[in-house]
C-alpha cells in the first residue's frame, strides 16, 4: 500500500532460497550467517541473486516511492525524538536504522492483508496509510491508538511483548475460514489475504512467539512472522535471546525461515513479497528475520552508550539503509539530485506539520473513558460514571459560586 | 420439558449456538475427538467438523490469543480451558489483551470471546484441578463473568455468553456437571438476563448469597435452618461481573442479615466486595456485620482433606448463628 508495486510470483522458491542462502553464507565471520541481500553495502545491485528477478518489474516510480517513505519516516522519527526531549511526548520509540526493514516489508503487503505491529513499526504504519499524527497522540498520552485498524489493516500497537503474535495467527485462521466458507457457498471470496506479525529479537524469547508458531504450523495459517532483529532488547544483546540465528528456529516448527539483510530495502521487499504470496496461496507460515540495527536508543528513556560500544555503532552506520538505497538510486540513474532535494524538503514539511499537530491536540476527558470499557451496558460502569459526573459537577458549582462571589 | 445434567445442558447450549451462528467455533485441548475430558463437547466435532470444533495444541496462551485474533476477524470463538488451575498460562492474554481491546481501540474493535472454565473443588482430584479464581478476573475491567448452578441456566448462559459483544468467562461448577434439572429450551424465563441474580428461596430473617457449586449447599443450609425456626433467603448470584447489587440490597433490607458463601479464599475474594457494598448501601438495615464463608488463605489443599476446606452446610449454619447472635 502507499506505493504502487507490481506483484511477482515465484512459486518454487524454497529451492531458490536454499541456493540463495548458500550463496550468501559468505559473511558468517561477522556473525551474519546466511543472509539474502540484493544491495551490497555500497548500494550495488546483486544481479547474480536468484531473487533479483523478482524486483525487476519494479518501476522507477515504485523505487523512488520506497526511498521517499524511508526518508520521510526517518525525518518524522527525528522530529518525534526531539519533541520528546522538549517534553511534548511522554515517550518516543525511535526506529532509526530500521527503515528498510519496515518500508520494504510494509510495501510488500496488499490492501487485503492485515498487520499486527509491536510498538516501533512507524514505517509500516506509513505504508498502511495510518495518519502519523495518531502515533504522536499515542506517545503524548492522549490515546492508545486512534487510527481505524479495520480501514488500514494495521492493528493497534501492542506494548506487552509478543502478545500480538497469537492474535495474528488467529486472524489468519479467520481469513482461512472466510475463504473456505465463501467457496462452500459458491461465492466469490475476493483475493486471499495474509497476516504479518511483527516482533523483535527480545520478544522472540517470549512464550507467545513459540505458541504462535505451533498454532500457525499446525493449522497452516497464512501468517508471516517478521522478526526485526535489531541486535538489542533494550540493553540485552541478541545472543542472550538465542544461541542460534533466529531464522533457524522456523525449522523446528516445520516451516521456512529466511534471514534477510534488514538494511536492504529491496531484499526485504522481495523476501516479504514471496512469503506473503506463499501464505496467500495456502502454503502456510514463514519466519523472516530481518537482520538490522537500532541506531538509537530503545526508547527515549534509555541510554545506549551505557551498554554498547561506539565501534559497533559505527560499523552499523556504514550499513545505513537510507544511504545505501540512495547510492543505488543515484548509481542506476533512477533518481537525480532534484528528487533528493524535494524529498528532503517534503520531510521538513512533514516535521513542521508534526510540531504543529501537537499544538492542535486536545486532551480527552476521563468521562469518555467510561464509554468503551464494555461493548454492552454494564451497571457498575454506569454507576461509577454517574458518581464521577456528580463529583466533577460539584467542582463546577464551587467554581461558579466563587466567580459570583468574586463579582460582588 | 426435558431433564438433563448441567454437562448435557452446556453441550446442548453449545450445539444451539453452533447451529444458529456460523461464526461460532470452539477451541481447546481434547474438545474434539474426545469430546472434552468431561465430555461436555461430546459429538460436536462429528456434527460440525474440525474447523468449527478445533482440537488445539496444548497451549493456553495460544488458545486465548488465537481466539482474540479470530474474534477480530469477525468470529465468535468459545475457548475451553481444561481446568481452573491451568488458566494462568493464558492469564496475560485474558487480562492485558482480551479485557482491554475494546477500550484501547476507543470502541472500534470488539472481541466477543467466550472462555469456558470448569472450576471449583469437591471432585477428589490433584492440585490445580479444584481452584476458584473468579476474583482474579472480576478485578479486571472489560471482562464479564457468569457461573450457572443449574441445568436451565447452564443451557441459556452458554448461549448468552457467546452472543454477548463483550468477552465473557463462564465458570462451570465441575462438581455439579452431573446435577440434573429441567431445561426449558424454548423459553429462558427469568434467566433471560444472564447478569441478574435469582432469589432461589424466599426468607425473612437472613440472606445467604452463593454461586455456582455452593448454591445447593446454601439451599440445604437454609432448609436445615428452618428447623431452628429461622427463615433464610438464598440468592444465586449467577453473575460475578457485573454483580446484581440491587437484588442483594433488596434482600438484606428485608432480612437484616447477610452471609456470603463461596469456595474461593475469603481474603481478597468477592465476598469482601459484596460485604463492603452492602455496608455502604444498607448499613442501617443490618442487624449484624456481613459474614463471609469461604476457603482459607492457603493453596487449595490435597483431596483427602478438601472436605474440611470447602464450605459446607455446617459452616454456613455456624455463620448464621454468629449473625443471629448480634
Automatic annotation (TrEMBL), chain A:
- Sequence ranges assigned to domain Dehydrogenase E1 component in this UniProt record: 68-343
Give the cofactors, semicolon-separated: thiamine diphosphate
Put simply, this protein is called Pyruvate dehydrogenase
Q: One GO biological process from the UniProt record?
A: branched-chain amino acid catabolic process
- Which is one GO molecular function term here? oxidoreductase activity, acting on the aldehyde or oxo group of donors, disulfide as acceptor
Against SUPFAM superfamilies, the record matches this protein to: Thiamin diphosphate-binding fold (THDP-binding)
InterPro entries registered for this protein in UniProt? Alpha-ketoacid_DH_E1_comp, DH_E1, PdhA/BkdA, THDP-binding
What are the alphabetically sorted keywords of the record? Oxidoreductase, Pyruvate, Thiamine pyrophosphate
Superkingdom of origin organism:
Bacteria
Q: Does the keyword Iron apply?
A: no
Origin organism is Sinomonas atrocyanea
Automatic annotation (TrEMBL), chain B:
Q: Name one Pfam family in it.
A: Transketolase_C
* InterPro entries named in the record: THDP-binding (IPR029061), Transketo_C/PFOR_II (IPR009014), Transketolase-like_Pyr-bd (IPR005475), Transketolase_C (IPR033248)
CDD domains the record matches:
TPP_PYR_E1-PDHc-beta_like
Q: Which UniProt keywords apply?
A: Oxidoreductase, Thiamine pyrophosphate
What top-level branch of life does the organism fall under?
Bacteria
Query: Which co-factors does it depend on?
Result: thiamine diphosphate
Instruction: Cite the SUPFAM superfamilies for this sequence.
Output: Thiamin diphosphate-binding fold (THDP-binding), TK C-terminal domain-like
Q: Does the keyword Transit peptide apply?
A: no
Looking at the record, the residues that make up the Transketolase-like pyrimidine-binding domain are 4-179
Leader peptide range in chain numbering: none
The entry lists its GO molecular-function terms as: magnesium ion binding; oxidoreductase activity
| UniProt protein name | 2-oxoisovalerate dehydrogenase
Biological classification of the source: Bacteria, Bacillati, Actinomycetota, Actinomycetes, Micrococcales
Amino acid at each position: 500500500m502507499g506505493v504502487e508495486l507490481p506483484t511477482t510470483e515465484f512459486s518454487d522458491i524454497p529451492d531458490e532460497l536454499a541456493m540463495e542462502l548458500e550463496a550468501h553464507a559468505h559473511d558468517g565471520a561477522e556473525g551474519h550467517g546466511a543472509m539474502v541481500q540484493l544491495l551490497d553495502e555500497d548500494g550495488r545491485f546483486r544481479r547474480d541473486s536468484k531473487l533479483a528477478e523478482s524486483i525487476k518489474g519494479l518501476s522507477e516510480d515504485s523505487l523512488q516511492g520506497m526511498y521517499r517513505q524511508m526518508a520521510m519516516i526517518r525525518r518524522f522519527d527525528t522530529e518525534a525524538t526531539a519533541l520528546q526531549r522538549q517534553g511534548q511526548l511522554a515517550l518516543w520509540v525511535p526506529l532509526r536504522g530500521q527503515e528498510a526493514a519496515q518500508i520494504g516489508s510494509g510495501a510488500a503487503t496488499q490492501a487485503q492483508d492485515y498487520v499486527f505491529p509491536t510498538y516501533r513499526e512507524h514505517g509500516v504504519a506509513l505504508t498502511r496509510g495510518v495518519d502519523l499524527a495518531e502515533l504522536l497522540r499515542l506517545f503524548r498520552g492522549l490515546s492508545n491508538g486512534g487510527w481505524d485498524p479495520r480501514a488500514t489493516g494495521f492493528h493497534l500497537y501492542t506494548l506487552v511483548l509478543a502478545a500480538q503474535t497469537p492474535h495474528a495467527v488467529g486472524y489468519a485462521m479467520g481469513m482461512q475460514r472466510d475463504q473456505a466458507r465463501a467457496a462452500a457457498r459458491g461465492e466469490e471470496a475476493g483475493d486471499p489475504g495474509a497476516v504479518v506479525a511483527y516482533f523483535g529479537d527480545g520478544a522472540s524469547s517470549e512464550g507467545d512467539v513459540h505458541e504462535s508458531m505451533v498454532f500457525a504450523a499446525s493449522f497452516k495459517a497464512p501468517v508471516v512472522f517478521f522478526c526485526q532483529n535489531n541486535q538489542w532488547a533494550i540493553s540485552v544483546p541478541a545472543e542472550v535471546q538465542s544461541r542460534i540465528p533466529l531464522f533457524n528456529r522456523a525449522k523446528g516448527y516445520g516451516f521456512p525461515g529466511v534471514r534477510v539483510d534488514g538494511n536492504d530495502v529491496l531484499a526485504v521487499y522481495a523476501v516479504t513479497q514471496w512469503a506473503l504470496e506463499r501464505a496467500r496461496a495456502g502454503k502456510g507460515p514463514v519466519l523472516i528475520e530481518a537482520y538490522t540495527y537500532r541506531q538509537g536508543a530503545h526508547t527515549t528513556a534509555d541510554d545506549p552508550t551505557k551498554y554498547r560500544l561506539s565501534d559497533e555503532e559505527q560499523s552499523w552506520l556504514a550499513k545505513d539503509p537510507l544511504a545505501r538505497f540512495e547510492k543505488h538510486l543515484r548509481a542506476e540513474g533512477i533518481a537525480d539530485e532534484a528528487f533528493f532535494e524535494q524529498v528532503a524538503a517534503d520531510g521538513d514539511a512533514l516535521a513542521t506539520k508534526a510540531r504543529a499537530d501537537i499544538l492542535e491536540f486536545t486532551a480527552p476527558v476521563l468521562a469518555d473513558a467510561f464509554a468503551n470499557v464494555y461493548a454492552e451496558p454494564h451497571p457498575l460502569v454506569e454507576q461509577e460514571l454517574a458518581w464521577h459526573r456528580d463529583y466533577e459537577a460539584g467542582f463546577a458549582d464551587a467554581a461558579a459560586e466563587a466567580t459570583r462571589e468574586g463579582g460582588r | 420439558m426435558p431433564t438433563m445434567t448441567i454437562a448435557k445442558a452446556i453441550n446442548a447450549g453449545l450445539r444451539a449456538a453452533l447451529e444458529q451462528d456460523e461464526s461460532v467455533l470452539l477451541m481447546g485441548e481434547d474438545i474434539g475427538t474426545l469430546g472434552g475430558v468431561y465430555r461436555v463437547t461430546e459429538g460436536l466435532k462429528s456434527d460440525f467438523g474440525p474447523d468449527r470444533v478445533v482440537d488445539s495444541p496444548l497451549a493456553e496462551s495460544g488458545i486465548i490469543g488465537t481466539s482474540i485474533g479470530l474474534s477480530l476477524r469477525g468470529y465468535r470463538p468459545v475457548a475451553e480451558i481444561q481446568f481452573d488451575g491451568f488458566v494462568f498460562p493464558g492469564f496475560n492474554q485474558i487480562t492485558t489483551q482480551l479485557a482491554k481491546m475494546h477500550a484501547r481501540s476507543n470502541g472500534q474493535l470488539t472481541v466477543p470471546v467466550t472462555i469456558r472454565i470448569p472450576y471449583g473443588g469437591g471432585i477428589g482430584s490433584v492440585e490445580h484441578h479444584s481452584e476458584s479464581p473468579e476474583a482474579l478476573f472480576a478485578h479486571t475491567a472489560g471482562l464479564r463473568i457468569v457461573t450457572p448452578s443449574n441445568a436451565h441456566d447452564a443451557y441459556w448462559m452458554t448461549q448468552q455468553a457467546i452472543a454477548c459483544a463483550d468477552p465473557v468467562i463462564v465458570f462451570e461448577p465441575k462438581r455439579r456437571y452431573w446435577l440434573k434439572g429441567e431445561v426449558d429450551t424454548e423459553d429462558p424465563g427469568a434467566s433471560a438476563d444472564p447478569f441478574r441474580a435469582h432469589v432461589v428461596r424466599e426468607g425473612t430473617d437472613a440472606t445467604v448469597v452463593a454461586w455456582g457449586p455452593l448454591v445447593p449447599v446454601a439451599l440445604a443450609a437454609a432448609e436445615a435452618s428452618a428447623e431452628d425456626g429461622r427463615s433464610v433467603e438464598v440468592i444465586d448470584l449467577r453473575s460475578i461481573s457485573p454483580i446484581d447489587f440491587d437484588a442483594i440490597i433488596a434482600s438484606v433490607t428485608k432480612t437484616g442479615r447477610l452471609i456470603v458463601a463461596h469456595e474461593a479464599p475469603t481474603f481478597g475474594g468477592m465476598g469482601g466486595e459484596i460485604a463492603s457494598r452492602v455496608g455502604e448501601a444498607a448499613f442501617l438495615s443490618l442487624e449484624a456485620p456481613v459474614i463471609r464463608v469461604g476457603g482459607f488463605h492457603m493453596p487449595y489443599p490435597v483431596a483427602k482433606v478438601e472436605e474440611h476446606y470447602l464450605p459446607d452446610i455446617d459452616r454456613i449454619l455456624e455463620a448464621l448463628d454468629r449473625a443471629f447472635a448480634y
